[in-house]
Design goal:
By secondary structure, the chain is α+β, with helices and mostly antiparallel strands. It is 48% helix and 14% strand.
Length: 219
Amino acid sequence: MPDLLVLGADMVAIVVLAYGLYYRRHRRRDMVLAYVGLNIGVLAVAAVLSNVAVATGLGLGLFGVLSIIRLRSSEISHEEVAYYFAALALGLIAGLQPDPRVFAPALSLLILVAMYVADHPALFRRLRRQVITLDAVHVDERALEAKLESMLGCLVLRVIILETDLVRDQTTADVRYRLAPRPVHHVEPGHPAWAERRPGTEHGATAAHLRPTNPAAGR
């Protein structure tokens, strides 16, 4: 007989994972259905296997089929793959229902906390990665770093040259870089821009919160 406490905890956990964490941060609706469906499916299969006498090979075969599921219509990022594994783990833990009964909800909570912290927008928020193709051949990585920094206006942390095409005169590079911080301009009280600041900037204003103050701009 499935434990209703464990099943209820899994339902809450997958809703928090799919809707509270993933969708609010990545805004991809189709993946929400994939995570919920994967979680419910794995939970059902694990619950059946844990309550009936089946051969070990059959159980391994069923989960082998689950492991080859992939989206062929569009690419998924590494972050979305991590959410896939989290949804699968939540369903598997709830389906197997390990003793004591609070162990499964505790592990589910641990997974949610780990995903919340690891995928938090404030964590490494200025770090970016791009695969860039340049219309020139670059074999010197230091010179390529300097060129990319001038093009992107950022600090290049690492450049990996993936391909150099001497026929088409192209270079493809994997670039990891840090965005430059936004400039902050101090505005003194009494300045025309001080009265035009948006609500919520009473204790200071940034360039993004101020309207143009150039007299020529209003002509």
